[in-house]
Amino acid sequence: MELTSDDAIAAFGLLIAEAAKGLVDAHDESLDKRAAMMRVESPVFQRDNDELLFEFKVKGNRQKPVVASVLIVPERGEDGEDFDYTPMDVSLKATPSCQCNDFTRDAACSHTLAVAWWLQEQLTRRSITEVFEFFEELEVDTIAVGREVCDKVLKLADEANKVETGETTQLQWRVGLSDSRYYAPLSIVAYEQKPRKNGKGWTKGKEIRSYDLLKRDFHGNQVDGEIAGLIASPSYSFDGDHFTEYRALQLLAGHPNVAWDDRESTAVAVLSGELTLNLEPVEIDVESEDGSETVTRFRPVIGVSGIKIDPAECEVLLGYSSPVSPVVVLADMKFNRLVVCTLRNPRATRLIQYLVKADLNETLFDAETAAKLSVGAARVDSLVRVDLPQQLAGPIEPVEAELVFELRPRVGAGLHIALVMHDDRFRSELVPGKSPDIIACLTDDGPVRLQRNLANEKVKADAVVDRFQFTQLSADGDYRWVAETDESALDLLARLHQGGEETPRMIWPEGESIRIRGEITPGALRVHIDDRKDWFGLTGTLTLEGTDVKLADLLAAVRDKRALVQVGDREFAKISDAFRKRLEQLGDAVVLDRGALKVAEAAVPAVQELLGEDVGLEATARWHESIERLESLSNWTPEKPEALDATLRDYQLDGYRWLARLSTWGVGGILADDMGLGKTVQTLGVLLDRADKGPALVIAPTSVGENWIRETERFAPELNAKLYRDSDRDKLIQSAEPGDLIIVSYQLVQRDVKRFASREWGTLVLDEAQFIKNSQTKTSQAIRKIEADWRIGLSGTPLENHLGELWSLLRTLSPGLLGSWERFRTRFADPIERHKDDERRQSLARLVRPFILRRTKDKVLSELPPRTEIQLQAQLSKPERKLYEDARLAAVAELSGVVDNEKQGEQRMRTLAWLTRLRQLACHPRLVDGAWSKSSAKLDLMMNLVDELREGDHRALVFSQFVKHLGVVREALDARGVEYQYLDGSTPAKERQRRVDAFQNGEGDLFLISLKAGGTGLNLTAADYVIHLDPWWNPAVEDQATDRAHRIGQERPVTVYRLVAQATIEEQILEMHADKRELVAGVLDGTDRAAKMDTADLIQLIREGVTS
């Protein structure tokens, strides 16, 4: 007979009453009076196997109800087994429980007594049938209760999801992960969500463009504001690497509204944690001469805060939140969480890579190797926690570590101070009183565990903190502080030196103690500025306690990131934080030339601001006149010229005003807006303003010369635009007068530079200014010889390859701003490009910011239709594959071997020739073999695509860098009767424009264009498809070509197809595009990788030129 059956419970009613009576008999009589005043309410009954639970609400006269319960269980036999339950041979035990403060296990309370009385009374006056009905009424239907709870939770969820009245939008951060080389591994994008019309939840949301994100009001939400500042940069500034994404992800820890980029309704938990290394023992069988035996091996397992990282199941990202702060990110898609772990040592990223690889390969270690591995991992980074199994732990030995001060001069001013536990066996300094409490070490006698006394360490450390008043300093972590000023640093050192023998030992870098004599402040600096021909000379001296320090020495200390300036034998002075920042920026703005500090006109406002009012300044009248002119410009808002017959968008009006201020100031710059944003019309506005300054010279690619004529006639008819052609060239130049606009190609200006340099021009405009990105070309040298009152460059891609290109442009447009190439290289180019120095990148951005204005289409043109990019793979036929492979192997055979330094140029040319041959074979064999009579995989793919586009009433631009390739396509189109327009470098300028106009007016389904000849300067919005037949080394060039269709005036979505021959050199070119676009994110745009790779790299590219 089981106690859980209904009839058994009824039969046991009297026994339950007897058990309740046992509670009554055992109670303290002093409780009688209070228990008698209690009311027992809301009785419920539950059963679980052989246990019965009665639960009640018990209430006194003035009390809130408390929950009291009685648990009824059968008594067990002597052997621990259950009795055979019958009313004759079983006894029941009652155990009370109550929420009140008076109840204990040893003594009942008034509430449990009241409950026992109630049970006893109810069960003794009922028959078995009545007891059965009684229990049936009391028993809880757990399924029904479960449904009720579920209903309440769902209702609560609806209420939580209901948008409160007055809430109009909310911000959601979406995180994207990518393992493609074409995209950054981590992306964070802001979305604005609106309430649904039914009031339940939020809409999918709309992406917030960076341009708008920076202007957004976050209503006091500091975290959202900081994240926005990291992931959105001003339109005219340079972005960094991916440091900002990882820093932003750290800030997102605990954020309530994070989702995946492709699943906005799936919440993502962002957590921060501690990196751990576990060595799990594994038993394996090993064969030996004596037979098989079982041995223990150890498998490394990495995790974050107890979460095991399975590389096969989770994605592990390794990045940096700053150039020296590595970050590990665990992306757990199964549980929708991102765990961020910050490390101290950049080498720790390699440690993770080693361990992940070992985990994936199921690597096992013997005991000796595992012990060394664990100790080595802990030495790599003190933030890595190592958990050892018992087999490797070794004996425990107590250790009394020494409490010491680590003092490190702070970059800028002040000191970094850390109170740490030091022991030669630790190999890393540990926080007092903080885990790990056991440190694994290897000794000559084997592994040992050093047991720290954390409580004792904390007591000692806290006593030191109280004694030396560290609470007055800025906290920088556990027992870490920053003395932010020289005064606070000197005050601290004085207290420590006077502390006596009980003061913890001080450890300085390299064991050298120093004396900080005083603080270097701007008030002690005296600066003199004098006039030179095209610049200003600057000298300065600072006096500190009778010692003179030259301004040039201060700038050198800041440049070299030295925290201290030497003013005597082992005596140093520290530069205050604020003054150091000013000196850093001053060093960027002035140029050191043969021992002299030079200031260009463009740098005058920056230098004046950086010197400030607290520096003693003696300057010439010309300097003060320049300052006064700039102050008047800052309060001037230029109005659009009445003669400019155009309605400017807001960003175009801003662009015109920026140009007008630069013009009045007299310094040049770069209008770097995306293709199609109207750089020409903005420039025409300032050309109208400057019409009385003299004739303007516009140097532009041949393909856009006619466009300048049309745009001028349309928007600025008061200007007299003329093309520089073969006839009457001397007369055209010499007779040019105010209001004239002479337009010439880069090729012609190089050839006829003497004519153009024979007179001075009012304004010089360089359209597509990237044509002078190489300062050593004859074109660049020729243009620098032309005298002009003011210069401006227009370029959607002022930086295509490396920072030297930006330097070349600004050398021509704003001479002196960036100094010599050697200075620019050592100060900016090398630190940024080679060492990923984020501070130097920001400094360069700050320096050039006034002289570069860049807006991108996605940030300023919300009405521009979307652009979709699709890559189509062409599978080479067997004959094509054989031809391609034969050529590749022949190239490898010819180019392999040691490179002769004396013949490097010749070998490079042969290498580039082979690369071109392979690229042509990937397009169509006939580009190399004139006897080839068959089609090609790429041509067949192209023609199938053309058929689909024509059926859908679409029109397309078709680009190739090989004119021969376009010729093959033309033959195929002619054979099918497809109408098209065609343009290459041999097309005369007038004919070019006629064909462009014809296509825009509906003549032709396709426009075949040579990438070099027609990739810029054309407006072809009649096309809504773009086809790139073959990839070029520089993705920026392809993007410019695509912008012929995706620009202002385009009303339909634009689709871009890239045709790529599978398993050929073309796939490798596209892989390099990812690196180039990363440079775009870091600086501005693109890179011409083929021009930058050395010969050995190019040969390796051919050697790896097939992937299947």
TrEMBL record:
<dbReference type="GO" id="GO:0004386">
    <property type="term" value="F:helicase activity"/>
</dbReference>
<dbReference type="GO" id="GO:0008270">
    <property type="term" value="F:zinc ion binding"/>
</dbReference>
<keyword id="KW-0862">Zinc</keyword>
<dbReference type="InterPro" id="IPR001650">
    <property type="entry name" value="Helicase_C-like"/>
</dbReference>
<dbReference type="InterPro" id="IPR000330">
    <property type="entry name" value="SNF2_N"/>
</dbReference>
<keyword id="KW-0863">Zinc-finger</keyword>
<dbReference type="InterPro" id="IPR014001">
    <property type="entry name" value="Helicase_ATP-bd"/>
</dbReference>
<dbReference type="GO" id="GO:0005524">
    <property type="term" value="F:ATP binding"/>
</dbReference>
<feature type="domain" description="Helicase ATP-binding">
    <location>
        <begin position="660"/>
        <end position="816"/>
    </location>
</feature>
<protein>
    <submittedName>
        <fullName>ATP-dependent helicase HepA</fullName>
    </submittedName>
</protein>
<feature type="domain" description="Helicase C-terminal">
    <location>
        <begin position="938"/>
        <end position="1099"/>
    </location>
</feature>
<feature type="domain" description="SWIM-type">
    <location>
        <begin position="88"/>
        <end position="120"/>
    </location>
</feature>
<dbReference type="InterPro" id="IPR049730">
    <property type="entry name" value="SNF2/RAD54-like_C"/>
</dbReference>
<keyword id="KW-0479">Metal-binding</keyword>
<dbReference type="InterPro" id="IPR027417">
    <property type="entry name" value="P-loop_NTPase"/>
</dbReference>
<dbReference type="InterPro" id="IPR007527">
    <property type="entry name" value="Znf_SWIM"/>
</dbReference>
<dbReference type="Pfam" id="PF00176">
    <property type="entry name" value="SNF2-rel_dom"/>
</dbReference>
<keyword id="KW-0067">ATP-binding</keyword>
<keyword id="KW-0347">Helicase</keyword>
<dbReference type="GO" id="GO:0016787">
    <property type="term" value="F:hydrolase activity"/>
</dbReference>
<dbReference type="Pfam" id="PF00271">
    <property type="entry name" value="Helicase_C"/>
</dbReference>
<keyword id="KW-0547">Nucleotide-binding</keyword>
<keyword id="KW-0378">Hydrolase</keyword>
<dbReference type="InterPro" id="IPR038718">
    <property type="entry name" value="SNF2-like_sf"/>
</dbReference>
